[in-house]
Design a protein that fits this description.
10 helices; alpha+beta
Length: 295
């Protein structure tokens, strides 16, 4: 990539990577205002604390929805200790760079969570970590038998490792990048379709992702490869031929029919159909208040 003939084929034409990369602020498309190559807080702002043991700071993106689904499933199963306050973090406004948020999650990504039922409180970041923590704390949705537990963790880690290709790769270049780059879109579309094929073939012989039981693996994968991908990225479902993945479709409908999943998908949701929004959740009655307000 150093001679003129090669550089002419680059995009943009003539581009050659510099010896040392430099940050060009404003270059990055829709999310340029929050993307930066350095970590840490940009401003002082303490996080609010509600009345429940579990404090969640999040946004209703697929990563945030994983955790609210888990909390709602725990409550539906009778685990009253899973009551929680869900505070909205507006990432487009940089809430994740406040000093209080960074103290909980130095990576400045939603969701972040604090369990105040323990002294001193436990901080949690990374959604997969939260799912495992909650499952172990309440003894639910994570099998204890060795093989079943390993299979559940396998698929949870699959989601955590695979999804950046879907969101940060395909989603970015297909929907959010400031220009359409055929090579990038094709590269990530191919990988997403491979992942969907992995999941579809697996679900051909399994009721749920980890086997015959509904687990945190389903809760983690559903918001991304189930409900989320159907409507995300400028309705890319047709582009990716989602209808071809019959087993994923069956499983998506099955998970989406659960009442706790429906509730969890509404929490910290400031976008979409107003009837689906529960901007912040501090009590179960918040679901009814929103429904009445728009009904």
């Amino acid at each position: 990539m150093t001679d003129a003939a090669d550089a002419a084929n680059n995009f943009p034409a003539g581009y050659v990577p510099p010896q040392v990369w430099e940050w060009k602020q404003g270059n990055g498309g829709q999310f340029a205002n929050i993307n930066r190559p350095i970590a840490g807080a940009t401003h002082d702002k303490e996080l609010p604390v509600g009345k429940h043991p579990i404090q969640l700071y999040s946004l209703g993106t697929p990563n945030g929805v994983k955790v609210t689904i888990m909390l709602e499933e725990l409550l539906a199963a009778g685990h009253t200790g899973a009551e929680y306050d869900a505070w909205l973090i507006r990432i487009n406004e940089g809430d994740q760079f406040g000093s209080g948020f960074v103290a909980v999650n130095p990576n400045s990504k939603i969701p972040a969570m604090v369990d105040r039922s323990i002294d001193p409180p436990v901080r949690l970041f990374e959604s997969g970590s939260m799912l495992i923590y909650l499952a172990e704390k309440f003894g639910a949705f994570l099998p204890t038998e060795t093989h079943a537990r390993a299979e559940t963790i396998n698929w949870l880690m699959w989601q955590m490792g695979a999804t950046p290709f879907l969101g940060g790769g395909f989603g970015h270049f297909y929907a959010y990048a400031p220009m359409k780059i055929e090579y990038a879109i094709d590269r990530y579309a191919m990988e997403v379709k491979r992942q969907l094929d992995v999941l579809d073939k697996h679900l051909a012989t399994h009721d749920y992702v980890a086997g015959s039981e509904y687990t945190i693996a389903d809760m983690a994968i559903y918001p991304w490869y189930g409900a989320g991908i159907r409507v995300a990225y400028n309705n890319a479902a047709e582009f990716l031929s989602l209808a071809d993945y019959k087993n994923v479709t069956r499983w998506t409908d099955q998970i989406g029919a659960r009442e706790a999943v429906k509730r969890g998908a509404r929490v910290n949701r400031p976008f979409g159909d107003p009837a689906t929004r529960v901007i912040e959740r501090h009590d179960a009655s918040d679901f009814d208040v929103v429904a009445e307000a728009v009904g």
